[in-house]
Fold this sequence. Notes:
By secondary structure, this protein is an alpha/beta fold. It has twelve helices and 21 strands. The protein has two domains: 4-249, Ribonuclease Z/Hydroxyacylglutathione hydrolase-like (Metallo-beta-lactamase, Chain A); 253-396, 3-Layer(aba) Sandwich (Rossmann fold), CATH 3.40.50. Strands 1-2-7-8-9-10-11 form a seven-stranded mixed sheet. It starts with a strand and ends with a helix.
Amino acid sequence: MSVVSIKPDIYWVGVNDRTTDLFEGIWPIENVGVSYNSYLINDEKKAIIDLSKAMKTDDYFSQISQIMDIKKLDYLIVNHMEPDHTGVLRTLIKMVPDIKILGTKKCKEMMADFYQITTNFQVVEDGETLKLGKRTLQFVYTPFVHWPETMVTYEVSTKTLFSCDAFGGYGALTGTIFDDQCDNMNFYEAQSLRYYSNIVSTFAGPVKKAIKKLNGIEVDTICPSHGLVWRKDPGRIVDLYSTWSDWGSTGGELGVTLVYGSMYGNTEQVMNAVAHGVSEENVPMEIFDCARTHTSYILPSMLKRKGVILGAPTYEVACFPPVRNLVKMALEKRVNNKDVAMFGSYGWSGGALKELKSIIGDKWNWIKDFCFPGGPTDEVLEKAAAFGRNFAKELKKKF
């Protein structure tokens, strides 16, 4: 993509990445891509806000060169130290050795750790301003959204918020960077939820604090580090993030995420009966085979829906590993306050139920469980349908 003017003197100079398969080396993006959004303010003093991942170095500097001589840059604003925001930093400093780097005190410490850069760094305080000419930047600390050094930058005259990882999402930009020109908002909102549940949900508390802190600032446009620029309805993405951060404590909306794994089809047969029982109560439901579906795609559903049903056979006197690993990751990501039930097949001995209860502890509300030996009989399938139906009924009582 070419450079895009956002406001007078303010430009998007980011790049798209459609070749990386795993974001942070964990989360699959091979089918959707991601953007690394960087912003240039071309005023009397020239400032760049965040950079790009190193793999896009040539594309990135080519973007800036469309507007100005890179050697005339005065400031680099580092909202966030993560390498997808700072990967081209060493190259930039070789090109502009006297550029002044601005960030938080913690950012300065991490700059030395990551890049061994200790000179030309100016620590900015929470609320401090920097006048570039017609444009004035204000720096607002937002620690742990989602690293301890993060901040956001606000341009006062145009009411533009450069929000770093806050309000971002997966998905390469397809022809436009703006929400009002996007013809596939459902896609970007879904990818924003997946990004939130994968990357940010661990820090739901700091997200809430940041939203509250920024509440007193009038914002006309939100420019995140990944995903769409929100200029038509910036409140939309703020409201979504607020809702998603609430789910971490409330447990989410009425609905069930049914996650199962099956070695030889026995647990899968019962899963179908359980699902039938849930559907009879008209409760929204998503079903995932977690041995074949990456955790990245299951977490958004688990975050959103109050009910979780786990179908896990016993494997070597313990829980089927893909189900165990999913539950551990969900708890690490602060997918909290769930109503949970478990079913599954076992052979010579049980074990899945005991291990899952040990992992979950008191973090989720255990409702019921249903384990059966070997393959399902007609009686087992009838009980499984009743198991799903009764779980859905219990869930509906809370809404």
